[in-house]
Amino acid sequence: MGRGVTGRFRSRGVGRGFRRRSPPGGTGRGGCETGENPLWHPEEELLYWCDIPQGDLYAYDPAIEAHEPVYTDTDGRIGGFTIQDDGTLLLFGEAGTVERFDPADGRASTVVAPNPDRFGERFNDVIADPEGRVFCGVMPDVEAGLSGELYRLDPDGSFAFVRECVLPNGMGFAPDLDSFYFTDSGEGDPTCPGYVYRYAYDRATGAVSDPEVLVDASAFEGFPDGMTVDADGDVWSAFWNGHALRRFAPDGTHERTVRFGPRKVSSLTFGGRGYTEAYVTTAGGDDRATEGEGAGSLFRVDLGVRGHEAFRSRIET
Known about the structure:
The protein is mainly beta and 317 residues long.
């Protein structure tokens, strides 16, 4: 369990604990060791993201250009999170642990207890599907010789195994909901350059099938990491160690590259009213000399395209 902070941004003014910053092209907070999982909360009009190794969850208010930490998992790391139907956040942590965090009172409660016999490592990227399930990656346990894995958490709190992989990362859905995208970053395996796969997706059951490679990252610098799908159906992939976001058409054609100062571009989402703003997380805030200007910062970028609201999880709590 951890500790939370209440009273965030309620006055829409800059109060104690807030900090303004304006690095080149950046907004929000700088210095995250591994900033990840940006997610826009439309009711609160806040952008949430986490610093995985520190177990910190942050909120950024674009109306006043201020941010603050809202929760710290003192027992471990936060790999990712979703927004529940009731507006609370579902935090995915260590060894299969899932917690419900209520931003209104800063409290967290256990939804799924840890199961280290089944989950040797922490969760990584997660995403809710249209029916409230959550697809969640589990990091590889290198010391134990265990590969990365992808699971699906169903509303009753049970996990269904989906597949093994090298390093599970970003996911998304095509606008018609016929396709599910999944990233295997491949980092750490010299035989795997990193891939984004497209699966046939069955909304009724949550099953995914018939995988095909949409993106083979061998032609690009870095590894595909977090991702999102815009309203036009194009896939945006953040490239870790690649200084870039890359846009791919639904047929996998590389259409555009957006360069960043930080080397480790980790993930992105669309937010703001109308979902016209892209929020991009980066890593390397512990070593900016080698990781690039603005490493560890949260960036707000106008990509000239529109996103859409994230699906909500509906896991029984």
